[in-house]
Amino acid sequence: MQLRYSFRLYPNGPQRAALAGAFGCARVVFNDALRIRKEAHEQGRPFPTIGDLSKRVITEAKKSPERAWLGAVSAVVLQQSLRDLDTAYCHFFASLNRTRKGPKVAEPRFKSKRDNRQSVRFTANARWSITPGGDLRLPKIGDVRVKWSRMLPSTPSTVTVIKDAAGRYFCSFVVQTAPAHLPPVAREVGLDLGLRHFAVLSDGTKIDSPRFLRRAEKRLKRAQQTLSRKMKGSKNRKEARVRLARAHARVADARRDFHHQLSTRLIRDNQAVAVEDLAVKHLARTRLATFVHDAGWSAFVAMLEYKAAKFGRAFHRIGRFEPTSQVCSACSVKDKPKPLHIREWTCRECGTVLDRDINAAVNVAKAAGLAVTARGAQVRPVPVPAQRVEAGTHRDGQPAVAGIPSP
Q1: Residue 399 confidence (pLDDT)
Q2: Rounded CA gap, 59 and 53, in Å?
Q3: How far apart are CA 58 and CA 140, in angstroms?
Q4: DSSP, res 58
Q5: What's the rounded mean pLDDT across residues 268-277?
Q6: Separation of alpha carbons 218 and 200, rounded Å
Q7: pLDDT value at position 388?
Q8: CA–CA distance from 318 to each of 113, 184, 336, 365 (Å)?
Q9: CA gyration radius, the chain
Q10: Nearest Cα to 11, choosing from 118, 126, 84?
Q11: Is 51 helix (H, G, I), strand (E, B) or coil?
Q12: Could you tell me which residue, 322 or 117, shows the higher pLDDT?
């Protein structure tokens, strides 16, 4: 399986200037090629191939006075920019023909130097390398210091250098790695994701939602107000924008770290994990949109899925239309739908008082075929009179036989 490893980069002043030039050249080549394809479409001509585009926007453009500065960066970076455009068009046409799964993909758009994310990619042809001292050697940029947090499992063939909105630099490697199976454990769990509690497990464990965005709301509001009061185009406004981006980056990093720690713990401690396929895109259009985005359910479920494949665990995703909150996990009797403010309900058939979230987690596990007991779903068992034919216990402690009175 393929995994992505990202590490923080710390370029110096000249290296940041060289990377800015590489970002700009890749962006110009992408926009020039996109403009040529749009003009060909408007005039009814066939799309030029990637070879023709490479000849026009790279080889011939370097010889012109207007694009002579394209020779200051590695040619591999420019070629990869054209490949990105070709991939974007392939996804767009596949979306139009409905041969691509997932949501519809829009037509490629022109890139801007004010985009929040700038990136360039170096392949093996660029002859990039990792120095013996641990630096990342990039052509026409130099040896950039890297903060290595772990070792790469194999030798990567490409590296992508990324600059985010907060002005931070990262290097991203995609490597091929073999699954590392963990020792089997005799435990399976179902998850019910929510807003009041981020996740409720089928064994009764409730994990509180950290609400990182809500806790940083005042700080983000002040940073946004400071940005809005700066004059457009001024240096102070640029600095205020970076401070706001860094504040948002801290929130995103804290949420990502929480997702990683929780997903790793669940995969390590359970042989199988089951979750419900939530309609996050539709929930994000309701009045609870802020809380839904703050929870980050989609990113968390994606982490569970790839970590289960990596460590040899089973991952199950049940349909979103399963009535997990309406079915009693004790007797499997379906009740009517209930509003969100009802957190506990009593089964009309067996009389068990059920916690809404724990009951849903148990039903998620059952729908996935996991061997999970419903002990955590029962909050307060209601006393039920024993039948006359049932076996009981005598005062002297000896068991009685059904249907035979005691002496």
Answers
A1: 42
A2: 9
A3: 17
A4: I
A5: 91
A6: 29
A7: 43
A8: 42, 23, 20, 9
A9: 29
A10: 118
A11: helix
A12: 117
Nearest alpha carbon to residue 240 among 222, 215, 252, 254: 222
Q: Of all helices (H) and strands (E), which one includes residue 215?
A: helix 212-215
| Residues 391 and 403: beta-carbon distance below 8 Å | no
Query: Would you name the residues annotated as active-site residues?
Result: 192, 276, 357
Cα(363)–Cα(328) distance, rounded to whole angstroms? 8
pLDDT at 168: 95
Q: Would you tell me how many other CB atoms lie within 10 Å of the CB of residue 155?
A: 10
* C-alpha to C-alpha distance for 172 and 162, rounded to whole angstroms: 8
The pLDDT of residue 143 is 95
The angle subtended at Cα 91 by Cα 88 and Cα 97, nearest 5°, is 140
Residues 6+ apart with CB under 8 A from 172: 4, 5, 6, 159, 160, 161, 162
Distance CA 218, CA 202 (A): 35
Q: Note whether 273 and 308 are within 8 A (CB).
A: yes
CB-based contact 43:35 (threshold 8 Å): no
pLDDT of 262 above 80: yes
Cα(218)–Cα(214) distance, rounded to whole angstroms? 8
Q: Which two tokens stand for residue 236?
A: 């102070």
pLDDT in tens, 76-105: 999 999 999 999 999 999 999 888 887 888
118, 162 contact by CB (below 8 A) = yes
The one-letter amino acid at 109: R
Q: How many CB atoms lie within 10 A of CB 71?
A: 15
* CA end-to-end span of the chain: 71
Q: At what angle do helices 235-269 and 297-311 cross, to 10 degrees?
A: 50
Q: Residues 128, 138: contact at Cβ < 8 Å?
A: yes
